[in-house]
Design brief:
Strand order of the largest sheet of chain B: 7-6-5-4-3-2-1-8
CATH architecture of chain B: Alpha-Beta Barrel
Low-confidence stretches of chain B: none
CATH class of the largest domain in chain A: Alpha Beta
Radius of gyration of chain B: 19 Å
Strand content of chain A: 15-25%
Number of helices of chain A: 16
Distance between the termini of chain A: 75 Å
Largest sheet of chain A: 7 strands, mixed
Number of domains of chain B: 1
Number of domains of chain A: 2
Oligomer: heterodimer
CATH superfamily of chain B: Aldolase class I
Strand content of chain B: 5-15%
Mean pLDDT of chain B: 95
Structural class of chain B: alpha/beta
Order of helices and strands of chain B: HHEHEHEHEHHEHHEHEHEH
Largest interface: A-B, 39 and 47 residues
Number of strands of chain B: 8
Number of helices of chain B: 12
Helix content of chain A: 25-40%
Radius of gyration of chain A: 23 Å
Strand order of the largest sheet of chain A: 14-15-16-13-12-17-18
C-alpha cells in the first residue's frame, strides 16, 4: 500500500549500539597513589604496615594502594571513636550535630562529579547511575538525617531517645558511597560515633568522604574510616568496646556476625541478601512492566540485594512479555562504565564474575533455556552479558540462590494465591515487585508477601524517608526514614 | 520493507492496553540521558532535517508565502553542501496546487491537512470532500483529525468508521491520523485512539494539530510508538509516526530519534516512517550542523526565516 521509499529519503546510521563514544572526563577525579586509615581526624599509616590494591574492574588497572587495617588499627579507631563520644559528640547540643551533617551533605553535592567518576572507576557501575542515582541519593540521606538531629523526641514521642555509643559499620561494594551515607548519617544524627569499613574492592569514595569529613571540621574521632577485607571486619565485630554493629552484605557473613555478637550487648542490624519476586499480572501495563523487569535485574549489573531476580509472569501475557523483554535487552548498551550511554557496566570483581559464571553454568546444566544479550563484551575487564533463564522451576538453584549479577530466572504462574506461595517460598525476604492495574490486587499482595520492601508498578526506587530492610534471612532492622533512627537509639 | 500482511481481527478498543503514566514518563526521560556526539550527532541532525514536514497552517497563508516555503524546503541552507531536503511541506488544501507546482519533481511531498482541520467539527460529507479536494490538487499525504468529541463520548465505532472512510477517499495518498493528544488528555486515551487509527487504516499516526497545548511530548510519542510496535507484532504491518508541535530544538529532536531507534529500531529510522511536524525546528538544526562543520555558532541572521 505504501509507496516505495523516495529518492529524497536519507539513510544514515543512528545505531543504538554504535552511538559515538561519550566518555565522562576523568579530570575531575583526583585519586592519590596511596590511602591511609582515617582515624581521629587524620590519615594515619596502618600499624599492620600492609597495603592492598584497588583496581578498576572495567580495565583491570590499579587505581591506588589502600591500607589494610589489622586488629590493632581497629582498636586504635575504636578508642578514637570512644574518646570522641565521651568527650565531644555526646555532649554537643543536637542542633550543632545537625549543622555538621548538613555541611557534609552540601560538600558531597559540591563534589558530586568527582564522587561519581571515582565511584564508577572503582566499582564499575555506569557513570549515568553514579551521577544520577548513587551520589545524589547519598547527599539526600545526609540532608534528611541532618534535619532529624535536633528533633529526636518528636520522632519518638513520650520516650527519651539516647545514643548508643560507638557504632561499627561494615558496608558492601555495590553502592559504596550510598551505603556509607545510609550508615553514617543516621548514626551521627542520633549522637553516636563511628568506625566504618568500606568493602575492599571499593574503598575509594569512602576515603574521599573521609577527606570531606576532615574539611568539614567534624570533631576528630567522630567518624573513623578504616579499610581492609574480612579480617578487618571481624576485628570490628569482635571488638568489646563497640555498642552497635550495622552490616550490609551477604547472608553468609551476616550469619557469622550474628553468631559473633550472640551473648554480647551489641545492638545489631543486618541487611543481607535477597531473591526478590517481581510479579507481572496479566492486567499490568506491559511496556512499563518490561521496563521494571529491566530496571529490577540489570540495574547496577544486578549487584543489588533487592534486585528482582525472580520474575513471575502470569501465563496469558507470558509470550508478549518475553518478546518485549528480549527486544528491550537488545537495546541495552553494555561496556565502558565511563561512557555516558552505558546501561550495564563492569562486574565489580573477578571473584564476583566467577560466581555469576558458576550460576550460569548451573542453569545450563539444569537444562534451563538461556537467552543472553547479543552485545559484544570488551576484551579487558570483568563483564557479563545480560542473561535470562526461562522454563525455570521453583526447585531450580537459579531460582533459589542469590546470584548478585545480571541473571534473571523466569517462571510463569496462573493465580494470585499460587504466585504468593511461590514468591514466599524462599529463605529470603527483602523485596518484591507487583505489576497490576488493579489497586485491590496490589494491597492483597503487599499484605501477604513476606518482604520488607514491596514496590507496586515500579522497582528499585529508593528514598531517604522510606525504611528499607528484610524478613527472614534477608536480615533485620530497618535503615532509612524514622525506623533508621531507632536502630541507633536506646528508646 | 513491509512484512507479509496477516489477517487480524479488529480488537475491542475498550480493552486497549493500559498505560502506567509514571512508568512511561520515566522511560521517556531515560532517552534524554543519552549523550549524542560526533558522527552520530551529525547523522542524527541530517536525518532530522530529512524528516521534517515543513509547515505553514495559518489563516493568512497566501500563494506567495507557500512558494517561499517551498523554496526553503529545497534549499535549506545552500552555504552548507550536501544537506538533505525536508520530507514534505504541510499546508491547507487551498494551498496544495501551488505547493505541488512549486515543488515540481524535487521529491518533496505535499501534505495537506483536511477533514475540517483543526477541530474536525464538520459533517462526514464535508470532510470527505475536503480530502478529495486536496488529493485532486495533488496532495501526496493527507493529515486528518479525528473527532475527539465522539471519541471522548466513547463512540469508538464512529471514529473508526470515519478514519476508514477518509482512508478510502485518500486513494494512493498516505493518510496521517491526528489524534490531538492534548484534548485526549490521558495516556490510556492516546493508546486507545492510536489502536483505533491503525486498525482503521492509518498510514501514520500523528500527535497534534499544533493548535492545542500541550502538543507533542516525549511520553505521548512513546505511548504511540509502543502502540505501533504492538500493531507490528500482531499484523506484520509497519505504521509511521509523526510527532507535531512543540519540537523546535535540535537537542529535543535527537532525543526523539533515540526514542524511535530504541523503541522501533533501524527500519523506522527514515522519513518514510517518521516525521517531525515543525515550523521552526529546521533552523535550529541548521545552526547546530553549521556549528559541527565550522566549530563555531553563527548568528540566527545567517539562516533564512521561512
Amino acid at each position: 500500500m505504501a509507496k516505495a521509499i523516495k529518492n529524497n529519503t536519507l539513510k544514515l546510521k543512528f545505531d543504538t549500539l554504535k552511538y559515538a563514544p561519550a566518555p565522562e572526563s576523568k579530570s575531575s577525579a583526583k585519586i592519590d597513589a596511596q590511602y591511609d586509615l582515617f582515624i581521629n581526624g587524620k590519615f594515619e599509616k596502618p600499624l599492620s604496615k600492609k597495603y592492598f590494591d584497588t583496581i578498576n574492574p572495567a580495565t583491570e588497572e590499579k587505581l591506588a594502594n589502600v591500607a589494610d587495617a589489622n586488629a590493632a588499627d581497629v582498636d586504635k579507631a575504636v578508642k578514637a571513636a570512644r574518646n570522641a563520644y565521651n568527650n565531644v559528640w555526646s555532649k554537643m547540643p543536637a542542633k550543632e550535630r545537625g549543622k555538621y551533617i548538613y555541611r557534609i551533605a552540601r560538600m558531597i553535592q559540591e563534589r558530586a562529579r568527582e564522587f561519581s567518576v571515582i565511584e564508577t572507576l572503582d566499582g564499575g557501575k555506569p557513570i549515568r547511575e553514579s551521577r544520577d542515582i548513587d551520589i545524589p541519593l547519598a547527599a539526600n540521606h545526609f540532608f534528611y538525617y541532618a534535619g532529624w538531629a535536633d528533633k529526636l523526641e518528636y520522632a519518638f514521642p513520650n520516650k527519651q531517645p539516647r545514643s548508643l555509643g560507638v557504632a561499627g559499620q561494615i558496608i558492601p561494594w555495590n553502592f559504596p558511597l550510598l551505603m556509607a551515607a545510609w550508615k553514617i548519617a543516621p548514626a551521627l544524627a542520633t549522637g553516636n560515633t563511628i568506625v566504618l569499613k568500606p568493602a575492599e574492592t571499593t574503598p575509594l569514595t569512602a576515603l574521599k568522604l573521609a577527606e570531606i569529613i576532615q574539611e568539614s571540621d567534624l570533631p576528630p574521632g567522630v567518624v573513623n574510616i578504616i579499610t581492609g577485607a574480612g579480617a578487618t571486619g571481624a576485628a570490628i565485630v569482635n571488638h568489646p568496646d563497640i555498642n552497635k554493629i550495622a552490616f550490609t552484605g551477604s547472608t553468609e557473613v551476616g550469619k557469622i556476625i550474628q553468631r559473633a555478637v550472640a551473648g554480647t550487648n551489641k545492638k545489631t542490624t543486618l541487611e543481607l541478601g535477597g531473591k526478590a519476586a517481581n510479579i507481572i499480572f496479566e492486567d499490568a501495563a506491559i511496556d512499563q512492566a518490561v521496563e521494571g523487569i529491566i530496571n529490577g535485574i540489570y540495574f547496577n549489573q544486578g549487584h543489588v540485594c533487592c534486585a528482582g531476580s525472580r520474575l513471575f509472569v502470569q501465563e496469558p501475557v507470558y509470550k508478549i512479555v518475553m518478546q518485549k523483554l528480549k527486544d528491550r535487552i537488545a537495546t541495552l548498551i553494555v561496556g565502558d562504565p565511563m561512557d555516558k550511554n552505558t546501561d550495564v557496566g563492569a562486574i565489580n570483581s573477578k571473584q564476583q564474575l566467577e560466581t555469576i559464571h558458576k550460576y550460569i553454568n548451573i542453569g545450563k546444566k539444569e537444562g534451563l533455556e538461556i537467552f543472553e544479550s547479543s552485545c559484544v563484551l570488551p576484551r579487558k575487564g570483568f563483564f557479563c552479558k545480560p542473561t535470562l533463564f526461562t522454563n525455570v522451576a521453583q526447585s531450580s538453584r537459579i531460582a533459589q540462590e542469590e546470584i548478585f549479577g545480571p541473571v534473571l530466572a523466569i517462571q510463569t504462574f496462573r493465580t494470585d494465591d499460587e504466585v504468593i506461595e511461590k514468591a514466599n517460598n524462599t529463605p529470603f525476604g527483602l523485596s518484591a515487585g507487583v505489576w497490576t492495574d488493579k489497586g485491590s490486587k496490589v494491597f492483597n499482595l503487599t499484605s501477604k508477601l513476606r518482604a520488607g520492601v514491596i514496590w507496586a508498578n515500579t522497582y528499585n526506587k529508593f528514598d531517604p524517608t522510606s525504611p528499607f530492610g528484610g524478613y527472614k534471612e534477608s536480615g533485620f532492622g530497618r535503615e532509612g526514614g524514622l525506623h533508621g533512627l531507632g536502630a541507633y537509639l536506646k528508646l | 520493507m513491509i512484512a507479509e500482511k496477516k489477517m487480524v481481527a479488529v480488537p475491542d478498543f475498550r480493552y486497549s492496553p493500559h498505560i502506567d503514566h509514571v512508568g512511561v514518563e520515566e522511560r521517556a526521560s531515560r532517552f534524554t540521558k543519552r549523550s549524542i556526539k560526533a558522527e552520530t550527532k551529525v547523522n542524527g541532525l541530517k536525518l532530522t532535517l530529512n524528516m521534517i514536514d515543513l509547515t505553514t497552517l495559518e489563516g493568512k497563508d497566501t500563494d506567495g508565502k507557500v512558494k517561499q516555503l517551498c523554496y526553503k524546503a529545497q534549499h535549506l541552507h545552500d552555504a552548507h553542501q550536501g544537506l538533505p531536503t525536508v520530507a514534505a511541506i504541510c499546508v491547507y488544501p487551498s494551498m496544495v496546487s501551488v505547493a505541488k507546482k512549486t515543488l515540481g519533481d524535487s521529491g518533496i511531498n505535499v501534505a495537506s491537512v483536511a477533514t475540517a482541520f483543526p477541530s474536525g467539527q464538520a459533517s462526514r460529507d464535508v470532510k470527505i470532500r475536503d480530502v478529495k479536494y486536496a488529493v485532486n490538487n495533488g496532495a501526496d499525504e493527507i493529515d486528518m483529525v479525528i473527532s475527539r468529541g465522539r471519541f471522548l463520548q466513547g463512540d469508538y465505532n464512529f471514529v473508526f468508521d470515519e478514519i476508514a472512510a477518509v482512508k478510502e477517499a485518500c486513494g494512493t495518498a498516505r493518510l496521517k491520523v491526528i489524534l490531538e493528544t492534548g484534548e485526549l488528555v490521558t495516556y490510556d486515551n492516546v493508546r486507545k485512539a492510536s489502536d483505533i487509527a491503525m486498525y482503521a487504516g492509518a498510514d501514520f499516526i500523528k500527535t497534534s494539530t499544533g493548535k492545542v497545548t500541550p502538543a507533542a511530548t516525549m511520553p505521548v510519542t512513546l505511548v504511540m510508538l509502543e502502540a505501533i510496535r504492538d500493531f507490528y507484532y500482531k499484523t506484520g504491518k509497519m505504521i509511521a509516526m509523526k510527532p507535531a508541535g512543540g519540537i523546535s530544538k535540535s537537542k529535543l529532536a535527537l532525543h526523539y530519534l533515540v526514542m524511535l531507534q530504541e523503541t522501533l529500531g533501524e527500519a523506522w529510522m527514515n522519513n518514510h516512517w517518521f516525521r517531525f511536524g515543525a515550523s521552526s525546528l529546521a533552523n535550529d538544526v541548521l545552526m547546530q550542523l553549521e556549528k559541527e562543520r565550522t566549530g563555531v555558532y553563527q548568528s540566527a541572521n545567517y539562516f533564512s526565516i521561512d
